[in-house]
Amino acid sequence: MSAGLYRRGHPRSRATEESLASSHPSHTPSPVSVRFTWHGHSNSVLYELNQLRSSHTFSDITLVVNDATIPAHKAVLTACSPYFSAMFTSSYSEGSQSSVEMHGITMEALESLVNYFYTSEITLTTSNIQEIFAASCMLQVIPVTNACSEFMRRHLGVSNCLGVRSFADMLSCFELKKIADEFTRKNFPEVVSSEEFLKLPLGQVLEIFSANDLNVSSEESVFDAVVTWIKYDPANRDKYLTQLLKKVRLPLLSPSYICDHARKVGMIEQSSVAMSLLMDALECHLLPERKAEFSSEQTRPRAPLNKTQAILVVGGMGRREFTGTPSIEQYLPSSRQWRFLTQMVTGSWGAGLVTTDAEKGDEVYLVGGSNESSRLSSLGRYSVGSDQWTSLADMSIARNGVGVVFANGLLYAVGGFDGVAPLKSAECYDPRTNQWSPLPDMTSKRFGLGACVCDGKIYAVGGSDGTNQSSAECYNISTKTWSLIAPMSVSRKFPGVETLSGCVYVIGGADTSPTKKHCSVEKYIPNLNQWVSVAPLTTPRSGLSTVVLEGCIFAIGGHDGKVPLSSVEKYDPLLNEWTTQPHMSVGRDCASASLVRVEVGVSGGGPRMSSPAILGGSSNRTSPENGTISPIIA
Q: Which end of the chain is more exposed for a tag (fewer CB within 10 A), N or C?
């Protein structure tokens, strides 16, 4: 074929276009245009770029750590790391250099991250996790930072939680720091027996002793911990005795403990101020009216969070189509068992279920849905502790297959089906006033959509306006505007949608055919406005319920095109794989699910997070000069 055929102004080009547009086989019309997408394109490009790097072809930058070098391409480094983007695209001198000396990072970590840039894969181990974690923070490689944080969370234990907390604090990884702090308080009796506790600085010790939710059976445990910490280095710590004792709730010590033990401790006997504090506490027992002289905090018993997260699944359709079950099940990960709770008065399906306080997890809200006779506009609140339902203000319109999320203190209900047509309307509920308020309409009608909150925006994904959709949109809470985002690769009605590590996951759902259910899973990366495929489900399902628990996504129930499912599977983002989990007692299609916190055991007992003793050790984590990190890993 002549290369000139498609030149601008070629005398045959217009005729050629017309003939292509008009000529087609008689049995099947040919489209005038086709949008072709090859989903393997990005992987192919990465592979070829890595081949070029391996052969030093077109390499225009060499990264140097001590005497070792790594050849690379500035364009790739810039695209993968904001750190390198700033280095090479600004007025810094490195932008015009052919080699750059790297500081504050190890060669091994840098090489692993550069390999990740070219392959999208990185191996995390107990031996390299600290170096890669620190390096990913420095180079601002957010996906790897999130993976490192999750890796450390899974290896959190009594022997290392304080070290992990210090390391997370140093890297400004506040979510991991928060998790480590909660683990410390929950496992206080064991943690204070560790060597890492004895090496803590004063500020962190004061923070621990101030916590209202320390898991202690009595305040004597806190007093003993104060004495133990000071005795580890009395020459330098005796001066902190009074400051620390004020964090102990002394009026809660028993009279016998004060008389027989506390006042006989050597450091107490040598401090008139400390002795006076103990005698004042003793008077609270002898003269109860003196309690008023103490602050309320000192006389209030600590309230340990002897609770663990559990999955609550409500309603859903069983064998009878369009008939909701009134049953409720709860799954406790520590026992890997499902159990029934008190059932609802009537069955429900297609409702939204959400908690408004993830920390407490003691209440959930059930929004809309359908029962046997009608679509619902109702709002109900379920109290986990009392196992009771309370009716609240109705929405402005009935909504089945509604998307429900909680953000900024408000409950949001978007889309759904009112019994007549799919909806594009949305409204929000304020728990403080028990009132609903209208919101701007979405760009499309969506029934059977999935919804989640990611980085302060509400995402409405898929659903149906009469035809199942691949489109998705997000709501900016600040500007109160909806905007479309990139479409998914396929249409999805009643998918599962969750947020994990700054990305939106859409799981399963129904295609254009009612019996065709998806196994496929896609992940939306907001800053790229791009969907990428991840590992598929082991079982196709739409109408599934989803929750995020311990860094993994649980896909619960749904329908496979033949029957309602009782099966459950879990997605691990670190391994990019789904594994089967214990089944529910009954099959549930279009059920509602949320996380709650339930009571488990007493002080010093109850379920514990997995804690293999691989992380533990020094509090001196890094040297700015050479980037070496003293191990948290044994």
A: N
